[in-house]
Design brief:
Layout lengths: L2 E5 L4 H6 L1 H9 L3 E6 L4 H5 L5 E6 L9 H11 L5 E4 L4 H9 L4 E5 L10 E3 L8 H6 L18 H10 L8 E4 L12 H15 L3 E3 L6 H10 L4 E3 L6 H9 L3 E5 L2 H9 L3 E4 L15 E4 L23 H4 L3 H15 L2
Parallel strand pairs: 1-2, 1-4, 2-3, 4-5, 5-6, 7-8, 7-10, 8-9, 10-11, 11-12
Helix pairs in contact: 4-5, 7-10, 8-9, 8-13
């Protein structure tokens, strides 16, 4: 039995899209342990079919943390036969090298000669991420390329009960996008959609996100006070993932939580602005993407900017609440087919 260490990416969406790689490794008989930063580790705990264990790394974002890396690496020595390094940074390749793992696989990345002893050539900019990660398995065979996450129903029920909710009887909105405002559908549109769904279905709308997005969701809730339940920054990521898994449907921007919903097969409407669904789509047959590049003939899209260089954000502002509501209804209809 091959003992494999997977060094995880640092973003939630990328973590979700690494699941098909883990499925291939597990199908080949490899025992998979994932080394992940704390804010990504909950994603891998929802991949119990593929992941045997999750090691939370005590590293700070953007820092080398040399002494901590050496300490963690010492604890790993002799425990693994192969390492798959998913991020392209030099820092991410240090851990398996310091741990003296015999086979260390990843992309050439930032010139990681010596740190990795099996390097794939770097792909063109912004490749499809599922294929990017899955190629590290060095095989064309294996399970579906659609990411899949699963949770025990009891875990979902417990998270919903803790929030005063009933699985299948609430909506989830994830209005944040850490990348920047050019990925965020306007708060007034989210608020209007919340009011429309509440009038129509009476079910609460749960607003999820990080503590950094608390002000954003508070403003949405203030504009739709009878409809919204604010949980952004007030729950753990493990609980947020479980709440998404139990939702009736979800509306979001292009974000990590969008990919979580897709991996659970939740009906969803995903609004894209500065980024492209051709690069990071929600891989879910029940997902509906709203992107106005072609409809509005937006030659600037996708720009991948954090802020709109022209100041108009037409790719987002002209996506009406009615349009997203129709997309969500279409996603729900697909669920019943």
């Amino acid at each position: 039995m091959t003992r494999a260490l997977v060094v995880a990416p640092q973003w939630i969406g990328d973590a979700v899209m690494s699941q098909p790689l883990l499925a291939v490794l597990a199908a080949h008989g490899e025992q998979v342990t994932v080394a992940a930063l704390p804010w990504v580790a909950p994603v891998y705990r929802a991949m119990a079919d593929e992941v045997r264990a999750v090691i939370e790394l005590p590293f700070q974002h953007g820092r080398l943390d040399w002494s901590a890396r050496r300490r963690v690496a010492r604890d790993m020595r002799g425990r693994f036969d192969v390492a798959y390094v998913l991020p392209n940074s030099i820092k991410s390749a240090l851990l398996p090298w310091l741990a003296r793992i015999p086979r260390r696989i990843g992309y050439a990345g930032e010139g990681r000669w010596g740190l990795l002893n099996w390097r794939l050539p770097n792909p063109p900019p912004r490749p499809p991420m599922v294929a990017f990660y899955r190629a590290l398995a060095q095989t064309g065979n294996g399970p579906s390329v659609q990411p899949v996450m699963r949770l025990n129903p009891a875990t979902i029920e417990r998270a919903a009960a803790d929030a005063g909710l009933e699985p299948g009887h609430y909506w989830v909105f994830a209005p944040g996008a850490e990348y920047g405002p050019a990925k965020r559908w306007p708060i007034e549109h989210y608020a209007e959609l919340a009011r429309r769904l509440q009038r129509r279905d009476a079910g609460p709308i749960v607003l999820l996100g990080s503590a950094k997005e608390a002000a954003l969701v508070d403003e949405i809730a203030a504009r739709a006070p009878a409809a919204c339940r604010v949980l952004a920054g007030r729950t753990t990521l493990d609980a947020a993932i479980a709440l998404i898994a139990g939702a009736r449907g979800m509306v979001s921007n292009d974000s990590g939580l969008m990919h979580v919903a897709a991996a659970f097969g939740i009906p969803q409407a995903a609004v894209f602005g500065s980024t492209s669904p051709e690069h990071t789509p929600p891989l879910n047959s029940r997902a509906r993407v709203v992107w106005l590049k072609h409809e509005l003939n937006l030659e600037c899209a996708p720009c991948f900017d954090r802020e709109c260089r022209f100041g108009h954000l037409r790719c987002l502002t002209e996506v009406t609440p009615e349009r997203v509501e129709r997309a969500l209804d279409d996603a729900l209809a697909a669920q019943s087919l």
